[in-house]
């Protein structure tokens, strides 16, 4: 596969020029091409926000659902057809705000899907309000005195709940982000990848340069298999570490736990009703 | 007690005292004994204490209605008599424990040493089986059949317990024999051994079997009375039918999961109740907008908000009718008997897939939790029509076609890409603000789709003579109650039963216009279905009888209300 194979030449892209989403889109195409994932076997699921539009801009099956509700749809699509590759694309508002409860519980489910969260610390589509990840004192048209809520820390939360793959990337570093995404997609289980991304229109504080100056990569010697170490590193917020924080390869996935695949691996759309069995069930109601 | 065709037996006690055990034994014993049976529960939303009751009817004719009358009351708790005082008459025979009822001295109370006998057998937990034995003997159930039921029902508890329960049953039969010897307490009904082989079901099970026939493959839900029993049914029996059951973190997740599963080709549903369904509303619009089928089972209970969790109501017709923002097609069923529950649940999946819409099944606590026997459920012609196409490279999910339906593909089946979007979208499925396309899409999702749906709307069913002067109107769970009341009403009164409440069949107005007088019975305070009829047909029903105290109508109430006409 070639990255161009995913191009949508006629797409009318609604992002601002210079938006970090462009480099994320390019990186995702490169990643998919290198992994050889065919558009027809790929389902991208998204909610609402600027990130949620991304699946419209590359060739794939897509389910662009409700705000905050991409994960429930994604986990179910994977559950009824495990042959599909599922990528959930969300923003910090969609996933950590509106969809926070689903974020928590899908970590517990551990479906074999990749969850990419564009994190620009601001609401773009609604024009500039605080997001759950906005930092203290960030002033907006609604947080007129500045944000005073503790910023949401998605990585610490995910690690605390034993998410099986937890990483953070920066949209500006496309090569490294691609390598992280490749590992995330290949990981068997729920892979959370939070991607820092500048919003050129509504976030004049957390700019490209700010992210450059306030992040660093986990050292090469860092091993992502110790959950306590991973948690500790995820709590660093003076300078944010980037890279893969935690991997657990041994957790069974949601689909692997489902009884419907214990004998038969075929997707559920191929299965019909067994009317003989049903007759037996109905007849069982004739006696005690 | 006078001899008659059917008896109403009520068991009343506190939560945790084991009324369900007595009910389960007796309902089986009556049916296996060759009699028609019906049971219905009313209970408080608590795990211990309070006063709960179950009505069990034994009859020589088919019964599926709730009655006010109590012929025999088994008062398991001290508070039972107070709890049911408005239903107890001098004709009610009250059986109770001699210790518990020692302060009562009415002539119609028979005191039986239940607890003392239970203690002799090893503890108070045997009192229920003893009571069941007393009643079974009074009801003329052979003791061998009673023993067989005890053995089947308690086998998982081990031989020791089964042995003690059998002894408890025997003790009950012995105490019952002593009562019968007094001469005024034996129930003798015409037996029909064909009934032995009939199905004994609850309303929930009838719906659940229909869902399985409809090829439901995915259900995600959040537990909520009175929809939980259907969730349990699907989780338990679904295992043998390739059904995934997932308990979602909330109702919002539940329906978004079901819609996701449906997008990927699995027939899907949710089961919920009033407040839980209110949380799902946004996603009903998602089903409408993305043209993704989903079946929504709503077990109604009195609201608003938490309301009366364990009681019954028909209050959520409007909620389902108007659920979701925007405009799109939908179908609402409200089965009133078990055969219809089975057929309509099956149809719900067929039609949801055929028209790519949400289809609702309205049930309620009374209907979901009542039991009775029916001859059979028909599996003939229960084919599931596969509506999913194999896509080609040029596939467009929302293609505008002459028949108003876009062929539905699913991801991974065929060469095409399936693009589904909650934004307004073009034929391919991508976001658009082209207002001409917008209008065409609304026409497709709403106007054209409703036209198609209306062509196969299920007509209301007329019970009684075609040549009526007075017409009773009912929908959903009031069916059995009104039907039984009809037996006591003059021939010029007929009953029009609606099992599909939206959209309405075009014959509806003709039925209504033909009557000199119309009267509707509904379990709500605002006459929701009466208003829907008026809105859809312009016809104003003359009289509305509305009950919204959380209890179903009784046969007596219907008859009484019709007497005033």
Provide a descriptive summary of the structure in words.
The complex is a heterodimer of chains A (288) and B (565). Chain A has an 8-stranded mixed beta sheet, sandwiched between helices. The longest helix of chain A is centred in the first third of the chain and has 16 residues, at 20-35. With 288 residues, chain A is of the alpha/beta class. Chain A is 32% helix and 16% strand. In chain A, helix 8 links the parallel strand 7 and strand 8. Chain A is globular, with a radius of gyration of 20 Å. In chain A, 51% of the residues are buried. Chain B is of the alpha/beta class and 565 residues long. Chain B has 4 domains: 6-197, Pyruvate-ferredoxin oxidoreductase, PFOR, domain III (Pyruvate-ferredoxin Oxidoreductase, domain 3, 3-Layer(aba) Sandwich), CATH 3.40.920.10; 200-374, Thiamin diphosphate (ThDP)-binding fold, Pyr/PP domains (Rossmann fold, 3-Layer(aba) Sandwich), CATH 3.40.50.970; 388-456, no CATH class; 461-563, 3-Layer(aba) Sandwich (Rossmann fold). Chain B has 18 helices and 21 strands. Chain B has an 8-stranded mixed beta sheet. In chain B, strand 4 (72-75), helix 2 (80-83) and strand 5 (93-97) form a beta-alpha-beta unit. Chain B starts with 5 loop residues before the first strand and ends with a helix. Chains A and B meet through strand 2, helix 2, helix 4 and helix 10 of A and helix 5, strand 7, helix 7, helix 9 and helix 10 of B. Strand 2 (61-64) of chain A pairs parallel with strand 15 of chain B.
Q: If you compute it from the alpha carbons, what radius of gyration of chain A comes out, rounded to the nearest whole angstrom?
A: 20 Å
CATH topology of the largest domain in chain B: Pyruvate-ferredoxin Oxidoreductase, domain 3
Q: How many strand elements of chain B? A: 21
Number of domains of chain B: 4
What average pLDDT do the residues of chain A reach?
97
Strand order of the largest sheet of chain A: 2-1-3-4-6-5-8-7
The stretches of 5 or more residues of chain B where confidence is low (pLDDT under 50) are none
> Could you name the CATH homologous superfamily of chain A?
Thiamin diphosphate (ThDP)-binding fold, Pyr/PP domains
CATH class of chain A: Alpha Beta
CATH topology of chain A, anyone? Rossmann fold
How would a textbook summarize the main sheet of chain B?
Answer: 8 strands, mixed
